[in-house]
Structure to design on (425 residues):
């Protein structure tokens, strides 16, 4: 099943719940299987699958009875299972992930599709049915928000963890 | 270009999507401005950090496919009590259709082509009747002579290309490729559009695969990169359409 891990990775960050993410990937694969005759050979299969995923996600969101999950609901348990490194690194990556999860959804989508999945901005614009300039501005705002949220509070002595974040963002120190 | 103009273009994704002239201007500016170069470096660092965090926060996906298949199998609400009569009726219809199918399909050129392909797979691959096969680097030469311009993938759906030869399907030339791995052996017969039997469907440009099932073998047909038709024969009905779809994706 091609690109299953990529779909799973993005669905998790959109849904914030493992079960909902599984449902979303499952529906994506099912719809892709049914509509495989619509896939044009020589085009980007990954972008096609992500278009289906984003359409499903948008359909799901438009339903009035859908309960929107907050990022904090399942993330801790999920990260503890997934991040198997030393505790400093785990906390550090956990904080970066929390920053990503707290981005507005429209910015988070563009950030994940572009930075993590490596899709071209043109493909993302077609996928989300928005102008290219909007994709670029959402991406810019997401990156700025991430940089801002990773910056430690001024006037407070940074902890070792904050210093690590700071070092990652500003190699020359802050 | 000045620093404040360059600043908005420094994200790697944005820089890559710029037109050639703006990219050139940005490159010139970066060559002469250490501060902007440092900012671009930080943007790359940010990307690396985001990717690492998202990957680390994603549980393994090895059993995801199995879980999805399991859910897909159980999601259809056929087993509600009131659906049993409808289910029984549908089963009877399917049985009648299956019994009647050979009458309608026995003269279908595509059906005959699939039967011939299955027969060749059985005799030449499974029963190993003596034939001259090409292997290794000889295969690409054979492919170029048979389907000019085509690139045959070395692996499809985890199976490796083992050997190839020219055979005949319904008296027309076909390229017979054998992919294998473990106990599984899959035949892919490639035919050019002009060699297809008259009236054969689907057309070679159709990207979807269509399943023909004979005994325990699975047969699927798919486009061969828009250059011909690929008939995939496997020992199991489930494997053939999967290999056909993977082949379409890899071409």
């Amino acid at each position: 099943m091609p690109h299953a891990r990529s779909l799973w990775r993005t669905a998790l960050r959109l849904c914030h719940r493992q079960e909902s993410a599984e449902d979303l990937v499952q529906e994506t694969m099912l719809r892709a299987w049914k509509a495989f005759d619509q896939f044009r050979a020589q085009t980007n299969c990954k972008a096609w699958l992500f278009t289906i995923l984003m359409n499903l996600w948008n359909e799901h969101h438009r339903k009035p009875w859908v309960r929107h999950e907050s990022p904090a609901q399942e993330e801790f348990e999920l990260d503890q299972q997934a991040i198997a490194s030393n505790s400093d690194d785990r906390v550090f990556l956990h904080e970066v992930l929390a920053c990503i999860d707290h981005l507005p959804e429209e910015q988070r989508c563009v950030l994940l599709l572009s930075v993590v999945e490596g899709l071209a901005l043109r493909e993302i614009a077609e996928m989300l049915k928005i102008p290219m300039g909007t994709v670029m501005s959402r991406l810019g705002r997401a990156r700025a928000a991430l940089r801002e949220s990773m910056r430690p509070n001024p006037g407070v002595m940074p902890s070792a963890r904050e210093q690590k974040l700071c070092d990652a963002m500003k190699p020359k120190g802050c | 270009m000045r620093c404040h103009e360059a600043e908005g273009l420094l994200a790697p994704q944005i820089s890559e999507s710029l037109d050639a002239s703006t990219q050139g201007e940005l490159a010139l500016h970066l060559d002469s401005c250490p501060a902007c170069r440092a900012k671009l470096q930080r943007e790359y660092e940010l990307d690396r950090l985001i990717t690492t965090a998202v990957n680390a926060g994603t549980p393994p996906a090895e059993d995801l496919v199995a879980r999805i298949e399991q859910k897909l199998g159980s999601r259809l609400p056929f087993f509600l009590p009131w659906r049993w009569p409808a289910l029984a009726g549908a089963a009877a219809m399917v049985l009648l259709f299956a019994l009647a199918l050979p009458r309608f399909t026995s003269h279908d050129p595509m059906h005959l082509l699939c039967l011939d392909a299955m027969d060749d797979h059985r005799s030449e691959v499974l029963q190993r009747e003596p034939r001259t096969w090409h292997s290794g680097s000889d295969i690409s030469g054979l492919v170029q002579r048979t389907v000019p311009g085509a690139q045959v993938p070395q692996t499809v759906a985890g199976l490796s290309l083992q050997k190839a030869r020219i055979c005949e399907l319904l008296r027309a030339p076909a390229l017979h490729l054998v992919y294998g791995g473990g106990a599984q052996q899959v035949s892919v017969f490639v035919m050019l559009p002009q060699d297809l039997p008259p009236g054969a469907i689907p057309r070679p440009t159709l990207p979807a695969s269509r399943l023909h099932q004979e005994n325990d073998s699975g047969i699927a047909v798919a486009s061969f990169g828009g250059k011909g038709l690929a008939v995939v024969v496997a020992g199991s009905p489930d494997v053939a359409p999967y290999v056909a779809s993977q082949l379409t994706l890899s071409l």
